[in-house]
TrEMBL record, chain A:
Gene3D superfamilies: Winged helix-like DNA-binding domain superfamily/Winged helix DNA-binding domain
Pfam families per the UniProt record, alphabetical: PadR
SUPFAM superfamilies named among the record's database cross-references: Winged helix' DNA-binding domain
Identification of the protein by name: PadR family transcriptional regulator PadR
Source species taxonomy: Bacteria, Bacillati, Bacillota, Bacilli, Bacillales
Annotated ranges, domain Transcription regulator PadR N-terminal: 15-87
InterPro entries the UniProt entry points to: Metal_resp_DNA-bind_regulator, Tscrpt_reg_PadR_N, WH-like_DNA-bd_sf, WH_DNA-bd_sf
From TrEMBL, chain B:
SUPFAM superfamilies according to UniProt: BH3980-like (SSF158560)
Domain HAAS transmembrane region: 93-204
Transmembrane segments: 76-94, 106-131, 143-161, 173-191, 198-219, 225-244
Native source species: Cytobacillus purgationiresistens
Pfam family, one: HAAS_TM
Annotated keywords: Membrane, Transmembrane, Transmembrane helix
Protein name as catalogued: DNA-binding ferritin-like protein (Dps family)
Length: 111, 250
């Protein structure tokens, strides 16, 4: 399985978490993801995801003028988006626990 | 900030815009995402990132991904098709009225509507295809040529069919022809005001005026037809040439 396939679904949660920290515009978001180590997918992938999240009312956007630059679209979480983020955290923690314990048991057998 | 985008990025953005518009996506939404990506590509390139790093290896796949998240603008689409069909009918009515009384067969009316709708669909499919696959100029122009040939064949086909098959015909008297022509003309003037361009009326002048003027002169009909056709298409070509040149300068 490729990383891209594994990332599906997980990346949505991470985007929500990053936007939750602070309002960001597209390029900033892509940079953050890269800093956190998500570098296997093309940066533009975030835009279709952001569009979908906007349709699902998880995020909203406002145009803001940047200093000496063009108007930029800044994304922030809605209440629904915050709830979705909380649910994602719960789901991720239990998933992570399960995956880790499977891998650990397997590791012990191999020893 | 580095203001100049690489040629590759600019081409991708232009193609994306064409792709989204030809897919019938909402214009405002389309402009928004193109602006957002322009900003993104500019920032990324000033940090030395490649276009592929942003949009992946297949521009086509990426365009499809974006389009999939955007709504189809049905209202704008219908408005557009209706306007074009009315426009084609206006031209047909006025050019025919310029050379005599109006007469329309049922086949004529239905056929014309059908052909125009078909050609609009085809032109958008063609643009979408060209934009998604970033075709070479030669292939692009060959497609335009095939398209013109195809539309010409359809129009000739309709004329031939109309001569062979009799369907109910509506003939208009001199006065009703005049009234219809005036109403149609008023419609085109209104469209020009609404769209704030004179192109509709300029095209009309090139189509109708040569006939009207040449009709008054005593020249042999064959010369008249070739003369009026030359003036019409030559005039439109010159007009388009001048307009494009002016736009490039601006």
């Amino acid at each position: 399985m490729s990383t891209t396939q594994m990332l599906k679904g997980i990346i949505d949660g991470c985007i929500l978490a990053i936007i939750h920290e602070k309002e960001v515009y597209g390029y900033e978001l892509a940079e953050r993801l890269e800093q956190y180590g998500f570098d296997s997918f093309s940066e533009g992938t975030i835009y279709p995801l952001l569009m979908r999240m906007q349709k699902e009312e998880l995020v909203t956007s406002t145009l803001k003028k940047s200093i000496a630059g063009p108007k930029r679209k800044y994304y922030s979480l809605t209440v629904k988006g915050e709830q979705e983020l909380q649910q994602f955290i719960v789901r991720w923690e239990s998933l992570q626990k399960s995956v880790n314990s499977v891998l650990q048991t397997k590791g012990q057998k191999n020893e | 900030m580095n203001k100049n985008l690489s040629k590759e990025s600019q081409k991708f953005l232009d193609n994306l815009q064409i792709y989204l518009v030809s897919s019938g996506k909402n214009e405002r939404e389309s402009n928004e995402i193109v602006e957002e990506l322009t900003d993104h590509l500019r920032l990324a390139e000033s940090e030395g990132k490649s276009v592929q790093h942003i949009i992946g290896h297949s521009p086509k796949d990426y365009m499809e991904q974006l389009a999939a998240e955007m709504a189809f603008d049905k209202k704008a689409w219908i408005k557009f098709i209706v306007t074009i069909i009315l426009g084609v009918f206006s031209y047909t009515i006025l050019t025919r009225a310029a050379s005599g009384n109006l007469s329309f067969s049922l086949l004529n009316v239905i056929g014309l509507t059908f052909i125009v709708a078909l050609l609009i669909g085809a032109v958008f499919m063609m643009f979408k295809y060209i934009a998604a696959n970033s075709l070479s100029k030669t292939k692009e122009y060959s497609l335009y040529f095939l398209y013109s040939l195809f539309s010409l064949l359809l129009f000739i086909g309709l004329i031939l069919l109309d001569q062979r098959i009799t369907t109910p015909v509506v003939n208009f008297s001199e006065i009703s022809t005049l009234i219809i022509a005036l109403l149609t003309f008023a419609f085109l003037v209104a469209v020009s005001f609404w769209s704030k361009t004179w192109i509709v009326l300029i095209f009309l002048a090139f189509l109708v005026l040569p006939d009207l003027v040449l009709n008054q002169m005593s020249i042999d009909p064959k010369t008249q037809i070739s003369l009026s056709t030359t003036i019409t298409f030559g005039g439109i070509a010159v007009y388009l040439f001048v307009v494009t040149k002016r736009q490039k300068k601006a």
